[in-house]
Sequence to fold (971 residues):
Amino acid sequence: MTALLQLAAFALGVYLAIRMIAALYGAVDVWHMIAKAWPRVVADVVVWCVTTGVMAWLMHGAYRSALVWGLSFYLAFYLSIWPLARLYFARRRTDRDVD
Amino acid sequence: MRSLVLSLDEVGAGDAGLVGGKGANLSELLRNGFPVPPGFVVCADVYARVLEVLDLGAALSQLDSVPPEEIVQRCAAIRDRLENEDLPAELADLILAAHGRLIANRGRPIVCAVRSSATAEDLGAASFAGQHGTYYYVDAAQLLKKVRQCWGSLWSPEAVSYRATHGIDHASVSMAVVVQEMIASDVAGVSFTANPVSGSRDELTIESSWGMGAAIVDGRVTPDSYVLERADLRVRTQRVADKRLMVSAHLEAGQSARLEEVPNAMRRRESLTPDLLRTVAQWSLKCESHFGKPQDVEWAICEGRFYLLQSRPITVMGREDIGRDIVGKYVLFKPLVENFTDPFTPLSEDLMIWPPGIRSIQGWVYVDVEALQRLLPFEVSVEALTEHVYSIDKDAPAWKLSIAKLPALFVKGLLFLLANAVLFLRTRALPDGALDSYRALCAKVDADTSMSPADAMIRLLLLPQLGDAVGHMPLMVNLSSLRFMSRMRILGRLVRRWAPDLRADAETLLGSGSEGVLSAEMGRGIWALALEANRNARARGILLAQAPERALAELRQATEAQEFLRDLDAFLATNGHRAIKEFELRTPRWEENPAVVLGMVRNYLLIEIGSSLHEEKTAEVRAGLIAELHARLQPLPLERAFGLRLRLILFFAEQVRYFLKLRENSRFYYIMGFGVVRKKVLRIESELLRQGKLKCKDDIFFLRAKELTGLQAGRLQWLDVEDRIRERRIEHIRLSKMGPPKTIGVDMQEKYARATQHEGATLLQGQPASPGTYEGSARVILDPSIDVELTPGEVLIAPYTDPAWTPLFLTAGAAVVEVGSYLSHAGTVAREFGMPCVVDVAEATRKIRSGDRISIDGNLGSVRILAPQAGA
Fold:
């Protein structure tokens, strides 16, 4: 049961990481109309950061660790996508010798 | 020695071994009284003598034992010697003497065409098309050099590779060279004694334009086109094109640009008089009669006299032959079809990087059905999936879930979700205008001269940097918009559950009418320009009196028209990256040629109507529908108190509107990215033209990306690519006329009957794209920049539509389009404007004629021709 709950905490960490990253991107995404959209951007950032903080605060011991592992895992996974994708496209280009 | 160089009239059909296939063919025609320009042939024996003198015999005999990786290098050495070493004096004298006699017989200075005529050109299936050199505008000073270059072209890497592929012994081929007077044609063209696409034998097709025929053959101009009855040479259809460019018959000293502008007065004038048309048709039929097979005839007219330049059998490769060598099962993805009605040019095709599961075949975009089948968690046959991908509509298919596929797909799906979850969330509810950040990035990438077109393509359309805004990824926005399907399904279920007998098009109507659809905004922008021109008497006068290109120059000079010009500039600042057939990099953008926009404005001025027929009433109809829905829901439990059902339906209607809008708008940004890539290609083109590595504008798009880098790096020169470009241009035209097969490697039944008779009317069936019914007069329009004469209320019949067609939707009563789907541009814009629209109506532009009385049912997807146009 404990393992299952830890797994759930890990999944929750992944989910919260996704929401936080997406919320933080809000400012970049609507930069050219930030004056119009900033309340939503700020609200998203606040909601998801606070939710993550509250969740971490509510959990204890192994569950909090699992949550943090979930958060960290997704962050590392997300950052690794970019070099991998670049490698993929570089290979496709080499196949066709496109410069 | 005399047999080394022969006059064309001294040779016959059986001399191909001596003078090559082309030389023998021209001689045969000349000896049989056909008006072939005079000339002579430098026989293959001369080539053999040169090989002997240069001591290349040993090098040739060793070629078959050379390892493949060395062969190109060895051939390059042979080519280098052939092209650069002087001819033995006695051979040079023979050739120059024959040239002198040719000039003496003409009694005036002439320039010549120098054409390779390989002796192996008739080897079975090997056509050698485009492998060997042809040179124009050749005078005495260049003659020997060009003859040597023809020989050298036998040893180009392409020709060598072609022979290797076809198992032809390198040492067995030889080369004669035909030298002919180059006819300074006033008009030139091509005729086909059978339909080159369908193979139909009862009609004759003639294409003609001003100047040299190369402009038509290479596809640089849209020629005038005539279809004649074979039996009595009566003109069945004719289309006078806007012929903007011509290849000059005279090349002044020091001039290298062969293309020149056609004088304004001649652009839309018929290039062939009825008498000349008949002459061309008669000679073409004589060619066919002589050779006993349908012919593809190149001809020229100089000072009213007809000249036959070439006659070859038509090689009709049917649509079904396309992709015959391709392994796998592919289907056109219908929502994309309307964007790619013509195949991509080679450079555009190479610069595109398609996501897995999608590939380009002969320049057209196909979905790999087997790859898709592996990705879907359903038990679905390849055939059923093929049909669904092709005819994708708003109703999701009812396929059974495959339990066996689930575990593997779950893992793949989870990875995909994790990789893309952030992007999906970011694109879930973008506010209108959020993608404007993409415009800023485009400007940044455009200004970065170190970035190649391929790099720009990836950065702008596929893989942004970590800190880039979501607007840098129109592809993901596009994918995100596919949520529309699930929302539409839920909306349909809710409406049918609670108000089952509401009008049939209720869901579609509820899901239409969102603000901020950029294609529709663009149409309204042109409309606003027309209104401004109407207010400004000077601008209106200029636009109505002059052709668009000339009008622009006059407007710039007229002080009273400055306000209109400011509006035009503002319109172009937003929409200038758009164009007709805009996914193709070769297509000029409106900011390069604003005359296209002025043409549309002018058309509005000509029809003088007050406002859109549909937009005003659509909101009213939608409001009526919501009121009716409200009334029907009222008797249901608790609805009167809370109105939850209505709110839920309106919520999903709003979601459908949002995601449909996102899909249509993502295109606006795709095209913006393509515009930047085009600018980069044009900069390279300009540099290559300056260096003499390219000779004509627009040729660059017929290079492969590898060849382009070869030219940039100096590994290739103009002579290496000239024939390839020409050959690809010809192939491109042929494929464009033919159109793509719907499937490759898999059969698909025609979903709709081609045409049936029903209650005294001809019934054409297509796919519903926008609801409503309409009856009116048909107007067939093939090109929105040329033949726009749409009277308000007429039914637009189009081969395809893209945003350049949007202004026509403002005045049309309904639309019928040959390609497309519910998701395609025609459907989206028609729904926004509230007009009935039927798409995927096969051959609509051929079966319906302008003036026919027709009835459209946008709910059922049917088109009925009630009364054909009088005299049709």
